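Researcher: Here's a chain I'd like modeled. Treat it as a single chain, no partners, no ligands.
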Amino acid sequence: MPLALYPAVVIHKCYVIEPTEAEAVKLIFTMYISGHGYGSIARALAAKGFKTREGRNSGKNSLYDILGNEKYTGTYTFNKTNRKENRPRNMHVDSPADDFIRIEDAIPAIISKSDFKIAQEIKQHNKKKAGSYKAKAHYLLSGKIFCGHCGSTMTGHRTTSHKKEYIYYNCNRHERIVTDKCPQSRLSRDAVEKLILEKIEKEIFSPIAKENISRFLSKEYENFVKTVSEKTSILEQEKATAERKLNNLYELVENGEADEFIISRINKLKTEIKIIQNKIHNNSSKDMHIITQKELLDILNNLHEDVYSNKDVDAQQILINLFVDKVVVDNKKISLQLTTERILDMAGAEGRTRTGT
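Model: Modeled as a single isolated chain. Structure tokens:
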């Protein structure tokens, strides 16, 4: 099926997700928040046979629009961008029109709100650094490393002096404000990233840590699936109650007792039932695979091999994106804050955050 901007069709005035296109959208968000660029994502979509509705391969512009489309979280929007008179709407302009409409949980969700938020943070960071990005250099800690003196973000820079190349992180305030520069000195990119990867290896990949983390993640996910099942059961009961009320009202209509109040109540109940049906669809745990502790251990072991033995930059970026909440630099003191929130957010569960120096 071709890839649409919002992969749903309307059946009986109700949005129903088109599963093949939804799979493509999930792939786009998963790859993007794991550190993949538009080119890599577009190649993955093409390899799986996903096309736009015009029959073309996805390009950077269409991926940009999809990653910024809030409808995938179940939020209905209308007139999100201004349209100038006699000119086409610019989808990359973020100034809402005067009659902009936004309703949360109004349509079936494909992407969690947490994943969508992470994607917007990455997009915003990439947008800010694009103007000064002159040479190709990868910075694993982009958007995650902060100055302990002034709280500003630290961004990657690349320069050449006396035919020698320097790649480093520097405080944004130090770069921007000439009259009141932040005292934080620049840090060698390779040195600080090496230190952070070593700290992560000690915290995440020691035998005891892997055992504890895999057990914790497995238990958290198991609890999440159980919670989803319980919520679905409650929603099914709510739906059954609403349907009984609706049937009672239909009997009144059949007996010739209909009035404006009854007709209004029927319409409200029908809308309520549709909303509950959407919630049941989005909350279903039937297709959820219970992730075992052994499977999680295997994932951690494979990731460790890619990051530390194979020196795979993409794997290193995935590791940073999943487990690093922030890095704070105060002179030469570096504090690392790790988290399991993102890896559990991808599954819908809740994570933990811990800080180390």
